[in-house]
Amino acid sequence: MSKQSLRSSSFDYLRTAGLKHFWIFAVILISIFVLRLPSLFEPFWYGDEGIFAAVARNLNFGGTLYLTAWDNKPPMIYLTYAGIFKAFGVSMFGLRLVALVVVLITATIIYEIAQKVMGIKRALWAMAIFGALTSLRMIEGNLALTEIFMILPISLAMFIAIWRKFDYLSIFGAGFLFAIASLYKQVGALEAVALGLFLFLYLKSFRGFFKKGFVLAVGFAIPYIITIAYFASKNLVSDFIFAAYTYYRIYLSESPRYALLINAAKVMPIACAFFYGFWKKIRGETRVFHLFLLWGAFSFLGSFFSGRTYGHYLIQATPALSLLFASLVKTTKIKTAGIILAGYILPIIFLTVTLFAGFGLSHLVAQASYYKNFLDLLSGVKKVSGYNNYFDSNVNSIMATRDFLKAKGAGGKSVYIWGDWAWIYATSDLKNPSRYVTSFHVFGVPGGKEEVIKSLSKSPPIYIVKPPSSIGNFPEFEKVVGESYTPIIRIDGVQIFERRSLE
Predict the structure, then answer these.
(1) With CB atoms counted within 10 Å of each terminal CB, which end of the chain scores lower, N or C?
(2) Which of the listed residues 231, 257, 283 is the one where a domain comes to its end?
(3) How many angstroms separate the Cα of 459 from the Cα of each of 276, 414, 415?
(4) For residue 502, what pLDDT band results from cuts at 50, 70 and 90?
């Protein structure tokens, strides 16, 4: 074969391979879209989303975070919801569409990281694994919660650091992005520690590590300086710290059985990843794969960090887990893989099975029923009410209450909802007279009950709504309702009280 024919054959092969790769890439993105498509049409049902929506709607009414609307999270999730509502209005479609776009962008970033480190084929695998994990209801990936939004800045931080070979600018940018992630959810800061430890393993001199570690810390500090400066201007620094950090102790105090064993298992993957990396450092063999190991270990620590365990906590670990799945077999020898399996993977499996009760086959069955419910709606087998009941038996009652309040012209007016149906605040454009949009927080925050009574006395709402599943009651609140309000209607067990005329 002539040289010209050989060159032509090679060119045709590369062109064909590139085209094939492009189509696989596109198919993966389309598949992620299809997997998440039903989430765009879900009703207003999930409690945490409802709280975020209520707080965000208050901000769009001109309120101030932690002063006129309170929740126990850092500020970014509320700012994100507020921005989405300004762009799309209060709609589940708009909210979940943005979450879908975030997942698609993050999947592309995961692909770029893997391509840089492992090549095209492994990159496609990593992207596909990530897309599947984050789009399945088995870990509540269909919801627009803090974890879905925080993994984008985390993945982008790792991408720019790897792509620019850990130069000063990329380390500074990574620190900044890690801080943004932690302003969605506190444990987003753990991945910054993972990168810091990797720099210690990767860099040859301690001086170099100290300098880049300092740059990472400076980048991380800037968003917090801006955030604290803002709340300082509102005299709300202590409120911010309590809501976003101090209150979190409630979650940490709810330790499961065998707490000592579980806490030891939480740090075992970190210790294994670090000492394995340190051994490689001594041998001069540190690679980006060790960053994946540390990233995975710290992200799983974030997932297991709280005494509570909800499926969506595992979303934090999906970027690193996808990269590890795509790279582990290729980059480790059998002997080394055995060590990693024992010290790294087994504790993660143990914690997932132990802490996330029922995680496994039952979730796969639930996943199938989730898509069946959507197809039943499209085909007319189910009516909207039956479709809604699949998610929560209260959904139709929430919608009926919303419709009643809209018909009464309550939009833009003060209405108090006692319970955990915070979605009604956002969907009915209500103003919350108390900064607590769920009764759970009234009991969880010191002085919460007294503050509610003071708020209702200072700014009496025109209606008080009491769902049948309200979380707790207290005599002072019942006294306010009894003395100043008249029951006017009951909707599916929901009591609605109207303020009596002063005349």
Answers:
(1) C
(2) 257
(3) 61, 8, 10
(4) low
